[in-house]
Every structure is written in structure tokens, then in C-alpha cells.
Amino acid sequence: MGKVRQPQQDRSIKTRAAIMNAAFALFAEKGIHGTNSKEIVKKAGVSIGSFYAYFKNKKTLLLEMLEDYLDRHYTAIWGEVNSSPPEKWGEEEVRSLVRHVFRAYDISPEFHRQTHALRYSDPDINEVYERDRERQVAQLESLIITFKDLLHIKDARASALIIHNSVENAAHTAKFIGHRMEEERLINALTNMIYQFIKPR
To answer: The pTM is what?
Structure first.
């Protein structure tokens, strides 16, 4: 099969977007394994030839969708934080960041749930998720290093990983597994834990 092309014209961009949107809807409705390329193009209103013009197969489409989804997930968490001066951070800023993580899981929860489950059996999907984890941890590490003259944290990298895993696990549990405790209580507890850990001594 020839090289997959990137859309340059407006019509091509719309066709490609229609395919991805149709796949999102079908994956949520029928599951990733329960959806095939013919169903995707039918829902998108395009030909099967158009599908293969942009995507080598369903797996290629899925990986690109996951990259796009995790970019939106990352922006939902860090988009506003990056414009806030780090030196002005306090407990409320920590709470805001934690709340952003919880809200980011609402972008496309079913897609996140399905792809996250697949990461344990699919090395390609796991690689995409690991790249995202790396940039999330790197962003946290950068914030900690910004405060290095005020904090008494000896290992910024390990601390960033612990904070990331704590918040991600709590949000994941609340959104996907279900928990009887209100989200706000979880957010407040995480905020207090993290702030007590990183606040200037």
C-alpha cells in the first residue's frame, strides 16, 4: 500500500475529520474491536478509498485519534497553568490544577476507558500513553525545579512522578471505576496532600 497522504486542501481536511469523528462515535457505541473500517466510512459518508488514502488501517486511525485525544487532554490540564507565573502559586493554584485533571477526563471518557484498557495488551497504544505520561511528569518536574530555592525536595523527578500518579489514579478511579465519595472531597484531599508536600518551608 502506498504512503498515506496528509490532507492539504479544505475538502480533504474535512473528509479526514469526518472519518475520525465517525470513528469516535462508533468506538463509543460499539467498542474499538467491535467497529470495522466499512462501518466507519459509512457513518462518515465517505468511500473506503478515502479511508485508505489517509489511514493505512483501523489501527493507524486509532493511534492518531489517541494522539489527538491526549493532546487535548494535556491542554485541558496545562493550558491555563502555563500562563500563570509559577512564583505566585499557592494552595488555590494546586487545587485548580487538580480540578483541571479531573475535568480533562470528561473530554471523551469512553474513548479514554477503552484505549487505556488496551495499553496493557497493545505495545503501540502503551507507547503513546507513556509518551503522554512523560510530558506530564516533565511539566510537573519543571514546576518543582522552578521552586528549588524555596522547597526542600531533593528529587524533583521522583516527586513529580509521585504527584502525577496520585492525581491520575484518583481521577481515573473517580471517573471510570466509580467511587461513592464526592469528587470535590477527593480534589480537596489531593490538594492538601500535594500542597503540604511542596509548600515552601
So the answer is: 0.86
